[in-house]
From TrEMBL:
<protein>
    <submittedName>
        <fullName>MurG-like transferase</fullName>
    </submittedName>
</protein>
<dbReference type="GO" id="GO:0016740">
    <property type="term" value="F:transferase activity"/>
</dbReference>
<keyword id="KW-0808">Transferase</keyword>
């Protein structure tokens, strides 16, 4: 029996936990001991319910960075916002991660959006994997490129900023007797392998040369998919619309427009009806508070609306469905742009209700985007989530 530690530090939602659930099922069945170190232990308890795993909370920055960069250009700037600007705070987080690894004594580490965990693990002689979408695993180059074309930054400024960050990190690593780094990307390139739960054409870093692409499976469409309810489509006329959204400024106007158009619409999300929104909608729009069988939804809907959610988007692309993205976070904005460049989606600002409705109207009438989504589905017609899950499990087992 081997001790496997899965760690999650940054980001939010079940998208960091759900995809590892079926991996954990296989590892536990094989007799391994799995420990989960999670940013959100309440979500982790739900995601791994019924499995014999040990839970620990991950050390994360709780307060907002001062100064805070509201428009980070590179991955390094994201790290600055997450505690890497203050050497005392960074040292404390690395120290706690090292304590956790001493307690759990891992034979293998699997880290999802966990840069500080990766730094703490430097020098630990066990297989180490990164796990997650491309966004969580920047390409190893110096200086780091801008993550988004709409946030350009002078190369000399990127060199200066990243060099300062590297010096700050290395001071701490040297004090711990750990191997230092020459580049921020080296944190990710020095592991056993980068297990990318995405498809190459959807990678946040489209110029990546290395990495093992496993495809994607959503948090709700793994082995428990058969337990999810089928799609209860409401009555209505026109294309069936599936919306997976979080509350945002333009949500009411969007749903009122869908209601007025009479389109049969399913809306899934937490906290969507806090203001009694459903009372203002016609029967063709149905708000649902629980997850649905995405495979069934993908087969029966005509298009989807979401916030740039990677896993859900992949499910619908595999079903050949085009979509509208209303991104709420930087990562979602980058991913949405990738799908727009691929021709399978349109995007809009959450603060611009007219733009959202215009883009949705264009998408409903667009055969081009529908065809591009169907082309994606055809290219990946042989993909099965179970195959990606098995490959990932086998990769970890082989390393052990």
């Amino acid at each position: 029996m081997s001790r496997i530690v899965f760690a999650w530090e940054l980001g939010g939602g079940y998208g960091h936990l759900g995809p590892f659930r079926p991996i954990t099922e296989r590892l536990v069945s094989a007799g391994h001991q799995v420990t989960i170190i999670a940013k959100d232990i309440a979500r982790a308890a739900v995601a791994f319910r019924g499995l014999d795993v040990t839970l620990f909370p991950s050390p994360v920055k709780l307060s907002k960075a001062v100064p805070y960069d509201p428009a980070p250009s590179t991955f390094g700037h994201l790290l600055q916002n997450m505690g890497y600007r203050d050497p005392l705070e960074l040292n404390a987080m690395i120290h706690v991660w090292r304590n956790l690894f001493q307690v759990t004594r891992p034979d293998c580490l699997v880290l999802d959006h966990c840069p500080t965990g990766l730094l703490a693990a430097r020098g630990i002689d066990v297989p180490q994997f990164t796990f997650g979408t491309g966004f969580f695993c920047p390409v190893d180059e110096f200086p780091l490129r801008e993550m988004a074309p709409w946030r350009p930054m002078d190369k000399e400024e990127r060199i200066r900023s990243e060099s300062q960050l590297i010096d700050r990190i290395n001071t701490i690593l040297e004090s711990n007797g750990q191997p230092t780094i020459a580049r921020i990307g080296e944190i990710y390139s020095s592991v056993t392998a980068n297990l990318l739960t995405t498809f190459r054409e959807l990678d946040h870093y489209p110029y990546r040369q290395q990495g093992e692409y496993l495809g994607a499976w959503s948090a709700t469409n793994s082995a428990n998919n058969r337990l999810l309810p089928e799609t209860p489509w409401p009555e209505g006329d026109g294309p069936k619309v599936y919306a997976y959204l979080k509350p945002h400024k333009s949500l009411r106007e969007l749903l009122m427009w869908l209601s007025g158009q009479g389109l049969p619409t399913l809306v899934v999300g937490d906290g969507l009806d806090g203001a009694g929104l459903s009372k203002s909608l016609r029967s063709n729009v149905k708000l649902v508070s629980h997850h649905l069988n995405l495979r069934s939804v993908g087969e029966t809907c005509d298009l989807a609306i979401m916030n740039g959610n990677h896993g859900t988007c992949c499910e619908f692309l595999l079903a050949g469905r085009s979509m509208l993205h209303i991104p709420l976070t930087f990562e979602q904005a980058i991913f949405s742009r990738r799908t727009v460049e691929l021709g399978v989606a349109l995007d809009a600002s959450p603060d611009q209700p007219r733009q959202i409705i215009q883009q949705l109207s264009a998408l409903i009438n667009s055969g081009t985007h529908r065809q591009a989504a169907q082309d994606f589905a055809s290219r990946h017609a042989s993909f099965r989530a179970e195959n990606g899950i098995d490959r990932c499990s086998q990769r970890i087992s082989q390393a052990l």
